DNA sequence: AACAACCTCAACCGCATCAGA
DNA sequence: GTCTGATGCGGTTGAGGTTGT
């Protein structure tokens, strides 16, 4: 699939662009099997691929990596994405990290094509329902308050990450536990509003 | 059948951050 | 401390597929 002009990092020489061929995939997978998924520039060179390292990394991460699930996002996964997005915002890589076999790109695409519409619709509906109740606070508002509170305390962009750090690094970090227990995560996320209230 | 409008998703871009020299 | 290249991330694009007229 031909794309726009070359990025600055791929201008040095003529590089292949657009859709990957099966042959390219095979070459890339072979080299990564031997050398591992690092030093992408040299991986591209070793594989004899006329691709920039960035492109190879993306292809590996989103398509060739082992244990990648493709398509058919289950209702449970969808629910999890919705909850995690409510909690973390557009931090796709973090959300993907909690969904074994799913990539940030896939989740981002799924969100943009399916869930964002669903959420908007839901919001519209609930807005209509709660209009009379004049209830000013929903979870999102609470979350924004929390972020604002933190920024008042002098948190910068770098510190913004730290507002999640106790979650990410502690009880929320499942990376070391092998395959994620989705049920457990869903249950945990049921606590998200309580957590935001607490924060 | 033909065309338009819409949808999906692989791939690219630009920027931020990290790591090593 | 600074520079530079590598890596990672979120946003965006556009080809190809699907659906509607």
TrEMBL record:
One of its GO terms (cellular component) is nucleus. Keywords: DNA-binding, Nucleus, Repeat. Residues 12-64, 65-115 form the Myb-like domain. Coiled coil: none annotated. It is found in: Nucleus. One of its GO terms (molecular function) is DNA binding. Residues 122-165 have a biased composition (Basic and acidic residues). Pfam families: Myb_DNA-binding. Residues 121-165 are annotated as: Disordered. It comes from the Eukaryota. The keyword Nuclease does not apply. Residues 12-68, 69-119 form the HTH myb-type domain. This is MYB transcription factor 5. It comes from Liquidambar formosana. The lineage of its organism: Eukaryota, Viridiplantae, Streptophyta, Embryophyta, Tracheophyta. The gene is MYB5.
């Amino acid at each position: 699939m031909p794309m726009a002009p070359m990025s600055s990092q791929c201008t040095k020489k003529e590089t292949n662009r657009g859709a990957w061929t099966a042959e390219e995939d095979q070459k890339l997978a072979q080299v990564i099997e031997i050398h591992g998924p690092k030093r992408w520039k040299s991986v591209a060179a070793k594989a004899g691929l006329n691709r920039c390292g960035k492109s190879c990394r993306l292809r590996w991460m989103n398509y060739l990596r082992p244990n990648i699930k493709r398509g058919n996002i289950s209702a449970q996964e969808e629910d999890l994405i919705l909850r995690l997005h409510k909690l973390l915002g557009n931090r796709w890589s973090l959300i993907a990290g909690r969904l074994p076999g799913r990539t940030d790109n896939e989740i981002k695409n799924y969100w943009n094509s399916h869930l964002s519409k669903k959420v908007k619709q839901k919001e519209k509906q609930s807005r209509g329902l709660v209009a009379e109740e004049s209830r000013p606070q929903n979870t999102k508002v609470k979350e924004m308050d929390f972020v604002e509170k933190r920024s008042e305390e002098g948190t910068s962009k770098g510190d913004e990450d730290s507002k999640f750090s106790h979650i990410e690094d502690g009880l929320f970090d499942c990376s070391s536990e092998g395959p994620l227990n989705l049920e457990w995560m869903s249950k945990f996320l049921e606590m998200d509003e309580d957590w935001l209230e607490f924060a």
